[in-house]
Amino acid sequence: MEFVDGRYQIAGVDVLSLVEQFGAPVYVYDAARMKQQYHRISKAFGGAKRLRINYACKALTNLNVLRLFQQLGSGLDTVSMQEVELGLLAGFDPHDILFTPNCVSLEEVNRAVSKGVRMNIDNISILEQFGDQHRGVPICIRLNPHIMAGGNSKISVGHIDSKFGISIHQVPHVLKVVSALGLKIEGLHMHTGSDILDAQVFLQGVEILLRAAVDFPDLDYIDFGSGFKVPYKEGGIATDIEDLGARLTDRFNAFCADYGRELALMFEPGKFLVSEAGTFLMRTNVVKTTPATVFAGVDSGLNHMIRPMFYDAYHHIVNVSNHGGKPRIYTVVGYICETDTFGINRQLAEVREGDILSMANAGAYCYMMASNYNSRFRPAEVMILDGRAHLIRRRETMEDLLGTQVELPALARPVATVE
User: Fold this and answer.
1) Same-domain pairing of 280 and 308
2) Which end of the chain has fewer CB atoms < 10 Å from its terminal CB, N or C?
3) How much of the chain, in percent, has pLDDT values that exceed 70?
4) 360 in a structural domain
5) In 3-state terms, what secondary structure has residue 404?
6) Residue 330 maps to which CATH number?
């Protein structure tokens, strides 16, 4: 979001006009920003002779977002059968989709195999069962390098107590299973967690994975995951993707020379590609003063944007309606019936009832974690593409809320029409 000629804009479109057209609350995505981030990471690792970027679509699975990345040449990283099916609907070739589930049944794994997507196995039990049924299907193995990375314990997934991946110490066991069942291992994978603060820690994980790769002679690619940090505050810490790209590709190219084959260097960014492209717009319902705090209460809550409550995540908040107002301190809260806080003691231009507040970095894991808690409707989504705003998901209605419910005749009573 930018301040231009006295008005806030997203990709050249006036923010307040977006609320007038689509209502509030609403998620708005800047397609140009997504493209910029995709090209930036592709360039950063451009020194690799074979590079593959797979968008980690759990960050944001709107079909239009998936199609945008497909047109850019991206592959897709998926973690559920539903994401696989969305990827196929979006036009991805099955061979360009990597399925990386955890703790799923063999039935779901078999369904993915039937779709022809690439498989990534993260536990020995499923590896053995998979080998019994699909010996001719090449697979990737997800290893846990026991590296502690990530800005929050809930998004650190490479440490020793994590449920994700096969322990690096269990590689000898894996090799026995591979040999006994005649499995073809085409890839190795790791993901240490999101919001990586120290590139050197990431590179330590790279070395661990490369040492393991020597024992797998038929590899076609190595997937180093992602977790690259984007700034949430002005001047905030971010992964230096250009520096990391130069250092990692040099090391990877040297490994490939020793390995005797040019492997594909693979990554699966999600937040890096879409976080900064998203803005969440909310309307102020009430300004409430107590002896200790001034609350700005908005027409949203943790049902639409749970990250501040779930991860203690910081999202920058701006009053876009009254940019010239005197700065005051507010705690911005939602309308859900429990503690529901977006930001504590934030300095904002004076907030009046009816003002529109924006939250930045709303592209990744925001709408995707939205719910119908308190029986509230989920908001609309809008994409700005080539200078025009397009509705890409309508706001929910009472019909959507009731759509999956099945009424019992014995309990049915005549009710008034719901409008």
Assistant:
1) yes
2) C
3) 94
4) yes
5) coil
6) 2.40.37.10
- Looking at residue 137, its amino acid is V
* Residue 312 pLDDT grade (very low, low, confident, very high; cuts 50, 70, 90): very high
The CATH number covering residue 98 comes to 3.20.20.10
Three-state DSSP state, 267: strand
* Catalytic status, residue 140: no
CA distances from 139 to 51, 108, 221, 267, 340 (A): 19, 15, 11, 17, 43
Q: Which of 331, 358, 334 is nearest to 343 (CA)?
A: 331
Residues 308 and 172 in one domain: no
Going 209 to 214 to 216 to 220, the CA torsion angle's sign is positive
Establish whether 247 is an annotated binding residue. Answer: no
Please indicate, yes or no, whether residues 250 and 282 belong to a single structural domain of this protein.
no
pTM of the model: 0.93
User: Which residue type occupies 54?
Assistant: N
User: Has 307 been labeled as part of a binding site?
Assistant: yes
Residue with tokens 């876009």: 320
- Interatomic CA distance for residues 104 and 126, integer angstroms: 9
Q: Are residues 233 and 326 in the same domain?
A: no
| 274 Cα distance to chain centroid | 8
167, 105, 162: which is closest to 142 by C-alpha? Answer: 167
**Chain mean pLDDT for the chain:** 93
Domain boundary among 234, 269, 304: 269
Q: Exposed/middle/buried for 113, CB within 10 Å: 0-12, 13-18, 19+?
A: middle
158 alpha carbon, distance to own chain's centre: 17
Q: What is the number of residues in the chain?
A: 419
Catalytic one among 57, 256, 337, 366?
337
What per-residue confidence (pLDDT) applies to 164? 86
Residue 119 · residue 95 · CB < 8 Å? no
CA–CA separation, 367 and 61 (whole Å) = 9
State yes or no: 311 annotated in a binding site: yes
pLDDT at 157 over 50: no
Between 151 and 209, where is the model more confident? 209
pLDDT (0 to 100) of residue 202: 84
Handedness of CA 21, 36, 266, 116 (dihedral sign): positive
Using alpha carbons, select from 147, 123, 264 the residue that is nearest to residue 208.
147
pLDDT number for residue 123: 92
33 located within any domain: no
* DSSP secondary structure, 173-215, as one string: HHHHHHHHHT--EEEEE---BSSB--HHHHHHHHHHHHHHHTT
In eight-state DSSP terms, residue 301 is -
Domain hosting residue 168, numbered range? 61-269
256 and 133, same structural domain?
Answer: yes
Domain count, the chain: 2
